[in-house]
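Hi there,

I know you've been waiting on this one. I reran it after we fixed the sequence typo, so this is the corrected version. Both the input and the resulting structure follow.
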Amino acid sequence: MKILFVAPADAWFKSSYSNDSGGACVEIADLTGGIGIRDSKIEHGPALAVTAAAWSSFVDLARTDTID
């Protein structure tokens, strides 16, 4: 099995809302041409890669607090 990494380990950083208590943590990485998103508790698990525009739209939506 070949494992592909979306970004090097030092490229990932946790959300400013995350803590070290093992709660639900999201990490993101700035990729060439996009953004990587993963669960911080599963370092070698699956990751999403989205365009910078898609990430920006998501962040804008989250900031407006209009997600049902």
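Quick highlight: Residues 28-67 form one domain.

Best,
R. S.
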